[in-house]
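Methods: holo model generation. Sequences were used as deposited, without trimming of termini or removal of tags, and paired with ligand SMILES retrieved from the corresponding compound records. Each pair was processed once, and we did not select among multiple samples. The sequence and flavin mononucleotide SMILES for this entry were:
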Amino acid sequence: MLDERTPVRLIGMSGSLRAGSYSNAVLATLRERFAGRADIMLYDLAPIPLYNQDFEGDKRPAAVKAMLADIAAADGLVFCAPEFNHSIPGVLKNAIDWASRPSFQSVLAYKPAAVMATSRGPLGGARCLEHLKVALDSCLVRVALAREVIITACETKIRDGRLVDETSLMFACGAVEALFGEIAVRRLDTAARG
Ligand SMILES: Cc1cc2nc3c(=O)[nH]c(=O)nc-3n(C[C@H](O)[C@H](O)[C@H](O)COP(=O)(O)O)c2cc1C
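and the model returned the structure below.
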């Protein structure tokens, strides 16, 4: 089991750069909700340049190197993405592309993660979540098994930058609890291998 005395280090990423982002509001709510058990760093992807395969390895831009180091040091990731054109926001996909290299041996490989999606519409989010899971699967990310978290009509469930809808919050917290379980399994695996 996880040592409850040591907070788990998590990185929260949304892919929205918008000041009033609903997705970032969900991550901020989770950061507060799990304070003491987890340190959730809300990651700013604005400084991450567009992916370019000419700049891999040592040639990676400084902001990308820093992001990779932060991901490597984290116990897990919490993704909460808005749906953009029935898919993942380009900002988030770009960050995943940088972090995915070298393929299958990247900082993302076997990294536990929780995934969730937001949408202003009554139907949106599900397609983004599916695409996100496919992309993370290709990077060997361990997405924690949990009930799907799709926060539709999010503008009615978020007030003053916090998720206030108890049902949505219950699902989101369930995904983070599942992530804790995945991290515990990973730590046991690592300890068993010596
Ligand atoms: C370029 C763009 C594409 C969008 N496409 C969709 C979509 O396909 N489905 C959907 O439900 N909402 C879509 N939306 C609405 C966003 O999900 C909504 O604006 C959301 O609040 C943005 O996330 P944020 O609040 O975290 O910034 C789109 C918004 C933008 C700007």
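The chain has one domain: 8-192.
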